[in-house]
Task: inverse folding
């Protein structure tokens, strides 16, 4: 069979499953999630063995150590993955929630309610936990999911799929085709796939957006900024800088660029250099590539004339993800927060808080740097659409 | 200059203007809208003359009468257009509205607020009022707008643009390039255009989606259904059918297909035929093309075994726009409303209510048949995104 036929066949099955899933109670969906967690635990030996096969192949083919690390399903990661499924079961179900009700003079009553999208396609790279995390979030929100993982994780993903498919039925579809054409078919399946979510690097995202006819929810880059104003508490600024850069440099909400007001630069930059030496952070103070996402103990440093120049710099070079100001001037902070065009803007706090759990969403399927539908951390609510239900008594329009 | 350079230059100006517009108060935006209305009235002679030139060219080139009608800016339409701008000024401004506030145990306070998208690109066909309607809605929501109209309306659109540009400045950009490449450049201007909205026929929409890299909010088709259950009040069913089909057959929320439960078909279909004869509605009772949008006094009629077959038919052949059930059985109605996967689902009411004003939104920029971001009528709120503002006191993540 052709890739197109296979992918469309899976999407059709997913669409049918989504229709059935809309009729399933919250209690039943939660029970399915707990069964899924138990099934994963029961299949741990097979999943581990499969992961070892992927790792052996990855090492033989000379995959970069960072990629090998992402691919590795350690015992700790396995436990966290299974616990993640259980915690999704314990979250409130957004489906069916009434957003508002209106009675109109025309005689109709309108209810706006949250509804599942229907079919979500997730294309991911080497981390096999994404398979389980996203499947759980989709099931909880009544969405069928079509998963397509990286070819380097094919054994692990297949084992995960085998472990859960007797619980999830057709609501979880797994694309085993290595050919990239499968991704193209997925994102062009208008009417069968409601939204596509890439979970991977910039190259994957760009390729998906280029081919897509269905809407894509995406996270491009996290080029986050910390601007230290001349009216800042420099001790606070250094503490935030340390947290935002060092705590987890590989995270998308880590800062990649420090901007310093020129008035305090002579005082603050030596403090920053001492901190960097202590923390082994490489500073780029000249020839900066302002749009670079380091994801490592490395960052750009720039001096700006005032806070407006900082805003302009961030809007121009940032990735509209998370950007912070440290200042004791409330008016400047308010202007910064209003004018910086990013999903999350911070005053006297670390950008590291951009995270579904930290925002009280319970779980996240990713962080959107888009503005349509979802911006910033995407939790269960962001995996839903809405519908208007209109009731009358034979009511017609005048 | 190349089309690409021109379009990107305009988009850059729009981006700058959007930045400034975010800083403008609601009172000032409303004043701009009133000035815009007055400027249009003052320029009526020039706009009328321009419309006459377009109409003469259209007739000379043999444009279809329906298209010529859409192109015509009658005195009544002109007045309605200007009043539309004034009514947008009187609506509440969604920008800056606080959606929620959360205090987290970590020490941060999070506020989720409504924000403008930034730059909206609207590509429309022959109706010149779309120029003014969409510009007003975008200005109100703090969005800059890039407008590209049909070449048959170029004189009218240019006159409208000349009339308002001294009020709107760079916040309204008008693409005069007839070449379709201008549309392609617009929808590929990632980082400059935040969302593209087609206002026109299926061909335009498909071409835009095919080329797009920026998100598109769209309305494909209105293939709306009326299902009459065997437990329906047939008088009510006929009254709703009459309203939904005859009141304004060219509207996207008019029904195109009547589905009748087989048990009452022998009784109800003769009533429908008599009604159709009286109202000059052409019925297709065999060889139906179920996915056809007539937009005229013409419709498909089908008989179904039960209400579940009706749901399946609608989900398969409909356009996920507006679909209705007429029944006195509350349980069936509830199932129908839950299971029909459409933006608006009706019980004992006419599909003609799918409309921004009827839903209490005050105005609409269109009706979305998509599920992402906006579904159903799109008002001012749907022209906004949101942002998270996080404040702390030197707060860092544990």
Result:
């Amino acid at each position: 069979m052709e890739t197109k036929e296979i992918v469309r066949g899976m999407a059709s099955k997913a669409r049918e499953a989504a229709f059935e899933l809309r009729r399933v109670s919250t209690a039943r969906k939660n029970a399915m999630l707990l069964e899924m967690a138990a099934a994963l635990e029961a299949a741990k030996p097979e999943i581990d063995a499969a992961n070892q096969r992927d790792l052996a192949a990855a090492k033989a083919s000379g995959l970069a150590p960072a990629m090998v690390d992402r691919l590795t399903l350690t015992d700790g990661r396995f436990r966290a993955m299974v616990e993640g499924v259980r915690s999704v079961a314990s979250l409130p179900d957004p489906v069916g929630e009434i957003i508002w009700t209106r009675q109109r003079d025309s005689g109709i009553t309108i209810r706006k309610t949250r509804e599942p999208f229907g079919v979500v396609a997730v294309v991911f790279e080497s981390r096999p936990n994404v398979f389980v995390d996203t499947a759980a979030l989709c099931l909880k929100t009544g969405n069928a999911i079509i998963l397509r993982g990286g070819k380097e994780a094919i054994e692990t993903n297949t084992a995960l799929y085998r472990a859960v498919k007797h619980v999830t039925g057709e609501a979880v579809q797994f694309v085993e085709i290595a050919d990239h054409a499968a991704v193209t078919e997925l994102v062009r399946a208008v009417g069968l796939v409601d939204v596509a979510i890439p979970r991977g690097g910039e190259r994957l995202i760009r390729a998906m957006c280029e081919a897509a006819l269905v809407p894509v929810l995406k996270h491009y880059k996290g080029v986050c900024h910390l601007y230290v104003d001349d009216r800042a508490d420099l001790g606070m600024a250094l503490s935030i800088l340390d947290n935002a850069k060092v705590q987890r440099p590989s995270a998308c909400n880590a800062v990649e660029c420090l901007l310093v007001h020129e008035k305090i630069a002579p005082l603050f930059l030596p403090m920053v250099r001492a901190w960097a030496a202590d923390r082994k952070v490489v500073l780029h103070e000249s020839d900066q590539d302002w749009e670079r996402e380091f994801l490592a103990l490395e960052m750009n440093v720039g001096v700006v004339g005032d806070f407006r120049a900082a805003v302009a710099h961030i809007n121009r070079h940032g990735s509209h993800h998370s950007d912070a100001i440290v200042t004791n001037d409330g008016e400047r902070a308010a202007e910064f927060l209003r004018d910086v065009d990013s999903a999350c803007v911070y005053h006297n706090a670390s950008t590291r808080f951009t995270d579904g759990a930290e925002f009280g969403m319970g779980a996240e399927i990713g962080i959107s740097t888009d503005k349509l539908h979802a911006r910033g951390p995407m939790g269960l609510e962001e995996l839903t659409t809405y519908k208007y239900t209109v009731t009358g008594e034979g009511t017609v329009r005048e």
About this structure: The radius of gyration of chain A is 24 Å. Chain A touches chain B through 67 residues (CB under 8 Å).
